[in-house]
Structure to design on (338 residues):
């Protein structure tokens, strides 16, 4: 018993010196190798067996003492192990789901892009259909504008319609007849504008002067003034140059035509377009510019200048002769006794 106690104490001291279990084994091997007698070896073996038995008893006692804590620890460890395993499985499943979602999102993205492109195409088609519908109404609206002499609106409408028909709508076969019709009207539109321009340049301006002199003659006949008829006041003649130099046709509070740019001239569909000749001729020039027919307009004015001036002289001569004859008739009647 004393020997077993010594052996156990020796092994404890050895274990306390070195926590490595191999140190105890090396110590036992060294003890057995140094002993020459078989009896010593048997004694050493007995010591080891007794020490191991004591260790088993101590371990059993410790297990009995800490059974509850040990059971709880084992169960907790099992629970933790199961949770870790479940978490790994869930993470694996989540990864698989994410991969499948990524593939589905790629497919959805392609579908959405396709739908987006189709939406743009449909919107473009709808815009073209609206434009076609509006263009089909152009001939009727154009006729109304021409009848009311709103030439700037008519020119804008015609130029825009022809540009659309010869541009985005060029491939629409159903609009070929309308395209030819509007193109022909655009080619001849400037002739109408030039005629209107000449009418205001040469006819309407001189008619206004003739009308003014008629009124003067009528007033003088009512007063029975025996003085000769005053000469025609050509200083008040409304020539195109004076349209730009004076503000005789400007409304009170408005600027003169000299200060008005051609780009600022706008057409009021509510008013009579010919009420202001200066503005009307500006509108005609603007319409001709939109039609790109300014060179043709200048050539037409140059070609017709001599003829129109001769017509002015002829009309003025006729008016003077008629006024003189009428005045002579009135004087002859006044001098005859009743």
């Amino acid at each position: 018993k004393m020997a077993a106690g010594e052996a156990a104490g020796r092994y404890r001291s050895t274990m306390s010196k070195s926590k490595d279990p191999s140190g105890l084994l090396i110590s036992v091997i060294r003890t057995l190798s140094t002993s020459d007698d078989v009896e010593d070896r048997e004694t050493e073996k007995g010591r080891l067996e007794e020490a191991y038995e004591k260790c088993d008893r101590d371990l059993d006692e410790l297990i009995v003492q800490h059974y509850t804590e040990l059971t709880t620890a084992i169960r907790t460890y099992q629970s933790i192990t199961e949770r870790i395993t479940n978490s790994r499985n869930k993470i694996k499943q989540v990864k698989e789901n994410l991969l499948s979602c990524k593939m589905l999102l790629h497919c959805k993205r392609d579908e959405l892009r396709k739908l987006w492109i189709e939406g743009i195409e449909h919107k473009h088609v709808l815009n073209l259909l609206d434009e076609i519908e509006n263009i089909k109404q152009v001939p009727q609206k154009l006729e109304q504008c021409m009848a009311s002499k709103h030439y700037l609106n008519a020119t804008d409408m015609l130029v825009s319609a022809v540009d659309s028909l010869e541009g985005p709508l060029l491939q629409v076969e159903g609009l070929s007849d309308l395209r030819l019709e509007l193109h022909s009207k655009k080619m001849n539109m400037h002739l109408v504008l030039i005629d209107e321009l000449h009418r205001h340049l040469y006819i309407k301006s001189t008619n206004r002067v003739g009308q003014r002199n008629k009124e003067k003659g009528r007033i003088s006949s009512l007063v029975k003034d025996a003085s000769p008829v005053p000469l025609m006041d050509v200083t008040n003649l409304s020539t195109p140059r004076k349209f730009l130099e004076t503000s005789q046709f400007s409304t009170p509070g408005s600027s003169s035509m000299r200060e008005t740019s051609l780009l600022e001239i706008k057409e009021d569909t509510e008013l009579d377009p010919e009420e202001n000749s200066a503005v009307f001729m500006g509108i005609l020039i603007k319409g001709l510019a939109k039609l790109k027919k300014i060179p043709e307009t200048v050539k037409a004015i140059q070609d017709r200048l001599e003829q129109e001036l001769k017509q002015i002289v002829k009309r003025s001569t006729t008016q003077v002769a008629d006024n003189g004859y009428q005045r002579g008739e009135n004087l002859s009647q006044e001098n005859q006794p009743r």
Notes: The chain is about 80% helix and 0% strand. The radius of gyration is 59 Å. The CA atoms of residues 143 and 154 lie 8 Å apart.
